[in-house]
Queue: 2 jobs
Job 1
Amino acid sequence: MTLHQGLAFGLIATTVAAFVWGRWRYDLIALGALAAGMALGLIPVKEAFDGFANDIVIIIASALVLSAAVARSGVVDMLMAPLLPKLKDERTQVPVLAGTTALLSMATKNVGALALMMPSALQIARRTGVPPGRLLMPMSFGSLVGGLAVLVGTSPNIIVSEVRQETLGQPFKMFDFFPVGGILTVIAIAYLTVGYRLLPRERKAAIDVDAALAAQAYVTEVEVPEDWSFEEGRVGALKKAAEGAVSVVAILRRRRRIEAPHANLKIQPGDVLLLEGEQQELNQLIVKTKLRLRDADRPVAMSEPTEEVRVVEAVIGGESDLIGKSARGVTLSDTHGVNLLGVSRSGHRMAGRLATIRLKAGDIIVLQGAEQSLPGALQALGLLPLAEREVRLGGVRHAVLPTAILVAAMVLVATGLVPVAAGFFGAAVLVVATGALRMREAYAALEAPVLVLVAALIPVSDTIQKTGGADLIAGWLSGAFHGLPPIATLTAMMAVAMAATPFLNNAATVLIAAPIGMGLAQRLGLSPDPFLMAVAVGAGCDFLTPVGHQCNTLVLGPGGYRFGDYARLGAPLTAMILLIAPWLIAWIWPFAK
């Protein structure tokens, strides 16, 4: 072992130890490792920041933006709407939700697919009385296996493809992962359909700030368009469409006010409806029934043409000028350039017009305005902005466009007409340029810690390869596995990746293990492809902890899970994958060169 190899191993070992210790953030550890690599002379300064321009980072970032655009389009809600009322119990809910999440993971990045489906799952859980914990972990596991089936479904596939490009000159194609990933997805969903019973039934879910705020009942006004037609157009049909989650408080018809309208009352074009419900249910009903949110279309004064319209929530403070006054009385739109979209007053039903409701301290209001003028308006009105979160009231835009752009990008990449990075980057730019996603939303969709982690670790992991350390480890492993069948070596490589993922993060695992797998295959005179596939599957399948993948972390609080719950459901699935996947990989990707 040379000095540089020893230093490279020491740097990797220290980085891994820091990951396992968990005292610092993953991205900070990766940046520290990058700085240490430069200081030790292992990473040339001119190459130290190449990771930030690497195709891996571009593809992951673009996939996140595309996932966010599809999520905000509402297309998933529209496609799922006819099916959701039929899911009466967990026996039907688990396979449908987990299977749908897995399928979406084949079209968008797996964490994006899970984020798309979680609101629907939580809504179903509330409506049917099923504990969210019985649904969310199977969905998370479904997203993990579904992401294995396509190149952009999960970070390990993207990184493994890049490693193949750098060493063999050819990356994996979009659907090269599908034969293995698709079969494993079917097996996993079949297991989860019955295995969810291993999860504890009675477990109280943690409620975060966003969920608590979302549970506030808002009153908002919608106008019935002149050409409106929805089923028979009665109040009862509207309530049925909202599954009882939204109430029609009153109907304002010309100069007449109809309080608590009867279910059989016919809704007429031009009517103004006062609706009360949680933000998510209100938004879904407005979009589904094609009602028009009143005042949302009122022009907002912009200081610059590049400004964007934002919607924020704020609490009326104790010294606010709004106390005891109405929106009309203080001329919110004319004087402050903002529109009032909704009001929430805990414990009280407000039946008045939004413009005439006399506001009180503690009321939560939803305001729309230009991004540069909103902060000044909030300060002038004595409002306390809530922690920034997604607020949508009738604001779904471009229901089909993001999906069409995503499908077009996947086709172009799959047919080899454009490289993966260029195809998905172009698609991400296009969804922003067409207005399907605002620039602010695109930036918010980027998971900066993950991108920094990957970009910083690329040159760090390269030190093992460039110093000859990967060949050295491969030599040790080939000696250890000498005389054993190739399938045993492949299984061991997958088991190592599975074991490392909870401690290193799946991206870091692949960056370190993939070059070693390549070297091991070359030492044994075997094709490197099955070993790269084994690393991708092993790193993408963390079913034992909540920390190895963002999907598992995402459902931890809402599902009310404990650390050990993951192994309860995930250990049998891990064993199944480890027993089946190596044979499947060897069948699809033969060992012979």
Job 2
Amino acid sequence: MIGRKLSILNIFLLLTIGSQAQKNSQPLSSAVNPAPFVIPALREWSGASGNFVLHNKARLVADPAFAPVLLPVANTFSADLKAGPLRQAFAIKTGKPRPGDVYFTLHPEDTTIKKEGYRLTIGEVITIEAREPVGALWATRSLLQVLEQDSAYRHIPRGQAIDYPQYAVRGFVLDCGRKFFSIDFLRQYVQFMSYYKMNDFHLHLNDNGFKDFFGGNWDSTYAAFRLENNTYPGLTAKDGSYTKKEFIELQQLARSYGVTIVPEIDVPAHSLAFTKAVPAIGSKTYGMDHLDLDNPLTYTVIDQVFKEYLEGPNPVFIGKEVHIGTDEYSKKEAEQFRAFTDHYIRLVEGYGKKVRMWGALTHAQGKTPVKAENVTMNWWYNGYADPKKMMELGYDGISTPDGWLYIVPAAGYYYDYLNTKRLYEKWTPNMIGDQTFPESDPLVRGGAFAVWNDHVGNGITEKDVHHRVFPAMQVLAKKMWNGADSSIPYQTFLEKSKQLGEGPGLNMMGRIHSKDSLVYSYKNILRLKGGNSFIQTPLQGIGYGYTVAFSIYPGEDNPDNAVLFSSPDAVVKLKQLSTGRLGFSREGYDYTFDYTVPVKQWSHITITGDHKGTSLYVNGVLKERLEGGKHRFANGKEMAKVQTLFFPLQYIGDPQHAFTGRLGNIKVFNCILTGDKINALAQVIPNSIH
């Protein structure tokens, strides 16, 4: 009886709601669109109903009054749309929009649109309004993320967004000195950062390893300076560097994506690359990674290095800011250090640039004045530079607290992976160590997280670094744009964030999606004849969390380094170097399994890999797991040995060094198989060589 009364009441309520809806001319089927999920989150959203559909004939239309500055934004957006799943370029025009178009315009005097902000109105036309071109660019990043999450890559919910950043500097610091990153990687990172509205890419261009890992000998300790240098040709690293032309083009690309490249030349500590090029400027007291600050030649050399990149009408460093390092020098030489710091602030400013430097003046207290006006510090450790005291002196800063934001891969200190849950729930750039400032404090310019490759030679690759950076970039993009505003719980953010990648045309994570876990299969038997013998697959490689299985029948007399699978990222070899055993190589590191594949008979091989290591199964049985290895040094020091493999799939075989033999039943899965599933794969072995 109670149930019947409730049912009647429900019917009455529905009729009442329906009647009211008719009075308001709003049909029951009408729904207001919730804010679309993007990273960083939209600051304000007013939903409408229905979707804008990006049709093939849509045009990207720039307001003629601002065409010179808006057409580059439209061109970048068009290139990204073409690189994305649609694989289609859109016409770019100036004039008035028609239904179905995307329209760009500026309102330079409209103070209701904040700096870097934009107003995005999605109706019959998508209208992007901003005070400056970069705001319009950020609007396109939001649109691209919405499109990425749509199965047809065409639907955008109608409504209006007003969006703007809490902090002006939203940065990432990459240590290129102790680990080389290719120029292609840096170019991809510019686009990746832009996709998440991260606008400040700080490149640490020189550094050195710890001499304890190199026999306690400075002469054998690794050091590198990554830029082409004509004044001191011996300064440029031989194992990886950037030409001036490449570096200029990188900065120009970054500009087109709203990203600023901030180059750092780190002196007077972390400076072994300079003292190896000019030994006379090394400190005999504090070690050759310290410059001798009492030697006039030191100033001559470092002056010339900076001048080479700053002078002339077309300098190599084209941006507004240059980082001069100034970190972790012996405090016993505080006065000399302060004089050195002041000298390079003024030298760089003399070329029309603003200066950044590491905060170190609490550590290096003294009487020698150091210029503060218009100088920015990276506040990384309050014991080295107390932010409150630095503000009182007139410095502004970028929040870079080591206890929150330092990734040091596989080193055993700081973070191997950042604690993204803790960052999401508790940190914002106004929190610097044990000091918290108002979010609106103008002296806190923003934040930056960092990757430091302290342990030179530990086997870390570009792919490994990116695997650590990617989840941090997503979380910190939100925290640096939105500040303390967390509109959804971390777990919800985490789940939704998995729908987003690195940006159109990028797949540095090596994610391969499919209806089931099998993403590639080659069922036939492939005969390879050595040398230039291969087939090319549609996949370049697969990232961590994979299984690759195949049957193999090697011929006799395969040479050393005979290749089974290859790509620009790695090679898998039948015979690693001169060992005769199965192995793989990537980025100059060679790894060997304790297994030799028998010749002239079929075997079944399964390789699985994650971000920790790589496993080999032979005929369904685990043979070896490469994980947790150590480099052990004569002085008792140990360094982790990273044994990961981003599996290469561009070629089965190789254009130059393919093995001789047969491969069959090749299967690639985007998950790690174990136990019975691996054993089942091993049962399918050809019974003849055909």
